[in-house]
Amino acid sequence: MEVIKSQSFKDMKIGPLIIALGTFDGIHLGHQKVIKLAEKISKEENIPSAVYTFSPHPLKVIKPAIAPDYLLSESQKIELISKLGIDYYLQQEFTSAFSQLDYRRFVEEYLIKGLQVKHIVVGEDFKLGSRGMGSIEKLRELAREFKFSITGIKNVEEHGNRVSSTLIRKLISLGKVKEVPEYLGRYYRLKGQVIHGFSRGKKIVGYPTANLKTAVNYVLPPRGVYACYVYYRAEKYKGIVNFGVNPTFSNNRYSIEVHIYNFNKNIYGEDLCIELVDFIRGEMTFASIKELSAQIKEDILYTARLLC
Ligand SMILES: Cc1cc2nc3c(=O)[nH]c(=O)nc-3n(C[C@H](O)[C@H](O)[C@H](O)COP(=O)(O)O)c2cc1C
Ligand SMILES: Nc1ncnc2c1ncn2[C@@H]1O[C@H](COP(=O)(O)OP(=O)(O)OP(=O)(O)O)[C@@H](O)[C@H]1O
């Protein structure tokens, strides 16, 4: 898959293309259906496929106060889209000027004249352009005028809920990580680099932990302990991760730290990916380090049985 990032795809002569359009933070079950259909049409018509997406998240520019944190880093998003067989990843830099572009000009100048788009796939309630004026009905009118095709996919739902990035963010922020795969299609994954903590884990508490500096500002679950799988250099391990400020100690600093089972390598500076499987307990303040260590021991035994 070719990755192209640009402020304007107006003059980018890479078409004709079949595109899936949207923000796509998560690549959840709804997104996957949209992208897979674009890929299928691309094969049938023998025209390359593209995912046309925006970065940063449009709300970071339009309404920063309510802009969400991310479900995916850029590299995770690119990897997932590439696995769906798409030919081009087109990342539109979402600037304030771009946010004011109305949907008609965007379609005409960027998609039709620029990229020579032949078919657009979106969700049926997708809204495009300045103030979200470009509904699927409006896009259908433009499709007739500019002679391209458009497919609006019926909402993918699970348990009566429309699958959306917003819903998945909410589940995570409520600690309901176990329910996430039903909408996301996989466990929620956070990627990061192992950095130095206070070096208390192994020496004082008795359990070594890898402190993670995340690749992006991920949506975070409530402070506490979670069962997880850990990926290190393509190997999968069981793990237990603590999100919090370690209130038992006085020098508080927010950290994401994971204890990997049966593992004793020095991995400072290396990349890890953790998959959140289940909530174990909230973060607690212990009267002594001995009590904290005893609780962690119990957490580790309990979590080992839970992960298979
Ligand atoms: C499974 C697990 C559970 C933890 N639970 C708590 C907790 O409830 N309260 C707390 O103060 N610290 C908790 N910790 C954090 C320890 O205090 C932490 O590992 C220690 O401070 C090491 O920090 P460092 O990596 O900065 O050296 C937990 C750590 C792990 C691995
Ligand atoms: N559940 C779904 N079913 C079908 N299509 C969907 C679904 N969710 C999103 N889409 C479509 O996938 C594309 C990308 O979605 P986008 O990221 O913009 O929205 P979203 O997942 O609903 O996120 P948010 O919750 O932030 O609105 C859009 O075309 C959108 O309409």
UniProtKB/TrEMBL annotation:
Pfam families xref list: FAD_syn (PF06574), Flavokinase (PF01687)
InterPro entries: FAD_synthase, Riboflavin_kinase, Riboflavin_kinase_bac, Riboflavin_kinase_bac/euk, Riboflavin_kinase_dom_sf, Rossmann-like_a/b/a_fold
Catalyzed reactions: FMN + ATP + H(+) = FAD + diphosphate; riboflavin + ATP = FMN + ADP + H(+)
GO biological process annotation, one example: riboflavin biosynthetic process
Record pathway: Cofactor biosynthesis; FMN biosynthesis; FMN from riboflavin (ATP route): step 1/1; Cofactor biosynthesis; FAD biosynthesis; FAD from FMN: step 1/1
Highest rank taxon of the organism: Bacteria
Keyword Protein transport among UniProt keywords: no
Gene3D superfamilies registered for this protein in UniProt: HUPs, Riboflavin kinase-like
EC number: 2.7.1.26, 2.7.7.2
Enzyme class: transferase
Gene Ontology molecular-function annotations: ATP binding; FMN adenylyltransferase activity; riboflavin kinase activity
Domain Riboflavin kinase, first and last residues per copy: 183-308
Keywords: ATP-binding, FAD, Flavoprotein, FMN, Kinase, Multifunctional enzyme, Nucleotide-binding, Nucleotidyltransferase, Transferase
Family: Belongs to the ribF family.
UniProt-recorded name of the protein: Riboflavin biosynthesis protein
Organism: Iocasia fonsfrigidae
